[in-house]
Amino acid sequence: MAAPRDNVTLLFKLYCLAVMTLMAAVYTIALRYTRTSDKELYFSTTAVCITEVIKLLLSVGILAK
């Protein structure tokens, strides 16, 4: 079995952390803003599902890089 590669730089790790942190912050702010408006409401489970799909796509994109 081959040894794991440790060629991931610190800058790339910080980039991944920043992207995921920003995603969580934007999600929280956007969800709170849209749920307090007087517009037509939506199911919160739908928002969570869409967010998880976006996180999956971002994670796969970061891993592919």
UniProtKB/TrEMBL annotation:
Q: Return the InterPro entries for the record.
A: Nuc_sug_transpt (IPR007271)
Question: Is Transport found in the keyword set?
Answer: yes
Annotated transmembrane regions = 12-30, 42-64
Alphabetized UniProt keyword annotations:
Membrane, Sugar transport, Transmembrane, Transmembrane helix, Transport
- Compartment annotation: Membrane
Q: Name one GO cellular component term.
A: Golgi membrane
Does the entry feature the keyword Transmembrane helix, yes or no? yes
Annotated membrane topology:
Multi-pass membrane protein
Question: What's the short name of a Pfam family annotated to this entry?
Answer: Nuc_sug_transp
Q: Name one GO molecular function term.
A: pyrimidine nucleotide-sugar transmembrane transporter activity
Could you tell me what this protein is called?
CMP-sialic acid transporter
Organism expressing this protein natively: Homo sapiens (Human)
